[in-house]
Here is the input.
Amino acid sequence: MTQLKIKQLSDPVKTEFGWHLIQVLGRRDEDVSKERQRLTARQSLRERKSDEAYQEWLRQLRDKAYVDLRAEER
Here is the structure.
């Protein structure tokens, strides 16, 4: 893939998933890995905070719940 020019189509390539044709549509000039890492970290933090809020909400619901179990007399 790195050998192909833009818009160039490769010969068929066989992998464990089958046969593939590769076409390079464009190349990135800048390294976006740091931006991707930042977005991934933000998403991870957001998910963690969301899960913590959900667990806290469940705990509050359980604390407020009142259950009165009585044995039925027959």
